[in-house]
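Progress report, Aim 2. The chain analyzed during this reporting quarter is listed below.
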Amino acid sequence: MKHDSIYTLIASVVVIGLLTGCSVGPDFTSPARPDVAVYTTRPLPSNTANAPTALGESQHFKEVRWINPQWWQELGSVRLNTLVQDALQASPTLARAQATLRQAQELYAARAGSSLYPQVDANLGAQRQRFIPSSSGLTGDAREFSLYNSGVGINYTLDLAGGNQRALEALAARVDYQRYQLAGSRLNLVANIVTTAVDQANIYGQIQATKDILQMQEEQLELTKERVRLGQAAPDDVLALQTPVEQTRATIPLLYTQLQQTEHLLAVLGGRAPGAGCLPSFTLAEFTLPTDLPLIVPSELIHSRPDIQAAEALLHVANAEYGMAIAKLYPQVNLSADLGLLALTTDTFFSGSSTVWGLVGQLTQPLFKPGLPAEKRAALAGFDAAAANYQNVVLEALRNVADVLRALENNALRLAALAAGNMAAQESFNSMQRRYELGAASYVQLLIAQQQVQQTQINLIEAQARRLVDSAALYQAMGGDI
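Predicted structure tokens for the chain:
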């Protein structure tokens, strides 16, 4: 047989295998979309409540099909935008997710290279042999000689049952899974930075208000001490005021601890050590409240949330692995071919050598392997588990959106009530101040009224920060296309 004929035969068999190969097992289909039209049983209001205070604007839910990829810019803080962009470049969490994605892509490429195409190896060898004629019933002296050989070997497995195709399908789905994991990591990183920055602004505002309260309490205490000295108050009055003064003073170190923890967390989220470099200190005054909030309908949410897409990718993996388990029950055909040269000396290697070749085809059919049906059943159970996991992820995503929507509605009402309470406390203080100027109220009464104003402002600050956090949570719940 001529060399060309050998090559033609090998190529023909490979092509036939590629054309006739089929994949056993069910083809993957995406799960049905959620059969719900709304997130909550009670309809959402077209607009949330508004409050006559900072960050008290009314918010409107606007149905959209996509989210602003840089949604954090809607909060209006230039320093926050810079911090987020730096973190997206320096975060080790994202670096790990990116490396894991590259690993999955290379594993797919490696499997594709070893299963889709024939494997070709070149060999070159030399050996020294001693032949004794008497061992074969011949006469003569023993002879020693060298044997030199070179050749090319080709191996290929016909994917008749589609096991290799299912394996590649599973690896491709794992690449998709890691891609969605990366998107989820980016989304969570940005959401954590935004939430931490707002928390820092909230704590800073509470510290300032608490310091004002402490100052007024100390003034009230000093006035009471003076009244005791003048005989206008009892010593017990001083003790009664001393307790709230020290209680207020004790809250300030706790607030500073929380403030410093936000600084440390922002540094780590940005890929820096807590002690390396200076980070911005945020205040509520530099944020703006988004007035138009995006709302993706439940049926489209599965295409925008990376956690749902990742769960679907795992379901795809399980489906392909089930097909792989079925393919093991079918015959397997392995082809191999060798073509080489054989010579006794290096001088005659290319001129007086002998050509050797071989072509081997082998079919293997499992006859008695009790473990294979068990593998098939295990793969089917794995698919059922992945399907249940997907359903759970979808339900949790819907619950997450519903919780955020209700929080936006209720916290807007809470801020409106606190703003009204703050206005009432301020009017009470103004009235007390006029009475004090007319001599109808004591300075101690004036300080108490002012203290009430400061206390309502602490609650107001917390509610203002909560509206910013709720807005960021909705962007995250919608998938925050990053």
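The radius of gyration is 38 Å. Residues 16-20 have pLDDT under 50 and may be disordered. These observations will guide the mutagenesis work planned for the next reporting period.
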